[in-house]
Amino acid sequence: MLAFIVRRLFVSIWVFLAASVVIFFLAVNVRDPLSEARQLPGPAQETAVAEITERMRLDDPVFLRYFRWLADAVTGDLGVNRQGQDVNAMLEGAFTATLQLVTGATALAIVVGITIGVISALRQYTALDQTVTFVAFICFSLPVFWIGTLLKQFLALDFNDWLAEPTISPLFIGGISLITGMACASLILGDRRTRLIAFALSAAAMACLLAVLSATEWFADPGLGPVVVALTALGGALGFATLVSGLEWQRPLQAALMAAGAGVIAMFALDPVLDDPSLITLGGLAVLTAAVCFGIGWAWGGELYREAAIPAAIFTGLFTGAVIFTDRMLMNFDNYSESVGGRPVSTVGAETPNYEGTFWESGLDSIGHLALPTLALVLLSLASYTRYTRASMLEVMNQDFVRTARAKGLTERAVITRHVLRNGFIPITTLVAYDIGAILGGAVVTEQVFGWSAMGRLLFTGIEQGDPMPIMAFFLVTGGAVVVFNMLADIAYAFVDPRIRLS
């Protein structure tokens, strides 16, 4: 393994250096950096041309400029741009904004896309599979600027207006209930009568829920409350226990239920701490939650069931913590909405200028600005992950070793989780690694639509001004990320599939 990592690192460095040479020569010749200075009148033209020439060292040969940039970049100095601004400071601000913009979108697209792809493969050629395929192709073909415009209109302007009187129309309740019923019926395996029962129950439950939320104007002052948090934690415990070991094993299920109960008790015990915490405090609580749940799974699982009880307890504990986090965030929604004039969903920028609030209110401000661009990026990436996952799963499910696993008497859950998923994730690993590396370069069109100043804007500005320094700073992050994450993908192959030998 170590020899492989060293060998891949050596090759990656040379690939990165070769790419940097190409990008630098393209950046130098993309546009004349003196074009604007030459339009100035008289002596001002000569002064501006001389300053820019000296600052950008335009009199030096291109190779000399490249090696000077490379030597400075190795020491961490990315130079100055055409106006004399520090490129390091520009890159720091742009990269921070890009992380805020794309981190949540990438994580959501990966988790939701892979989940939908797995379900679609398991329900091949059903109505659910056909619907997922149709929606995926639509999302894949939509231009991002058009998606952004629609989201601004319907999920920002109209939604903010609706929050003034948050009542749901009967037509909308009926439509959402119908869609929910159809989705639940398509997920159920059974005869027509079973599916009709599932359709009727889920549609009626959704209709009642929306009617109650509308009558109580819940959306104006939302919150989950202890009862909903406890029931959600219970559902999470059942779900994770089923996924990890199945409900036939009692020890993992009991460990998950204990983790959920401990989380609900901690919600009341830590009420003063959660009133206005810091990010470090929440991070420490997350680590403490994982440690406590690990102890629960270790102690309660025993020698026979410890391997399944530990992940079931940890997943349940972290999920319960996330539900409590959501509840606290929703409890502060009313105060935040009033402080921003009843317009919680923003259409421009990364934050409300000069806004100061509690941790939860500041978090709502960030979420309100991230909601639309994140959703736009998720809709675009979702289709790729869904289709790749479905195709990979179907290919693996037809292999001989899967049929052998079923013939040995393994449960369908064990066949899917232990054999199909592990082998089906190999091509997805490549897609995820490339996507994470590339998306760090920012989303130029999305940033333009939603008024974000991030990595895409840094690249666009460098090209527009014919300035190679911002362009090379952009390449340093994105090119390095692509190289590093592709190397990590190669290493991950050995852990995903033992048949792969790195030698």
Describe the structure.
- With 503 residues, the protein is mostly helical.
- The protein has two domains: 1-121 and 371-503, MetI-like fold; 223-341, no CATH class.
- 77% of the residues lie in helices and 0% in strands.
- The N and C termini lie close together (8 Å).
Short structural description:
This protein is mostly helical and 503 residues long. 77% of the residues lie in helices and 0% in strands. It folds into 2 domains: 1-121 and 371-503, MetI-like fold, CATH 1.10.3720; 223-341, no CATH class.
Query: Beta-sheet strand percentage?
Result: under 5%
Low-confidence stretches: none
- Overall average pLDDT: 84
What is the CATH class name of the largest domain? Answer: Mainly Alpha
SSE arrangement, N to C: HHHHHHHHHHHHHHHHHH
Shape by Cα distribution = globular
CATH topology of the largest domain: MetI-like fold
**Rg over C-alpha atoms, rounded to the nearest angstrom:** 27 Å
What is the number of strand segments?
A: 0
Helix share of residues?
A: over 70%
CATH architecture descriptor of the largest domain: Orthogonal Bundle
Q: How many domain modules? A: 2
Q: Which structural category do the helix and sheet elements fall into?
A: mainly alpha
Gap between N and C termini? 8 Å
How is the biggest beta sheet arranged?
none
Enumerate how many helices there are, as a single number: 18
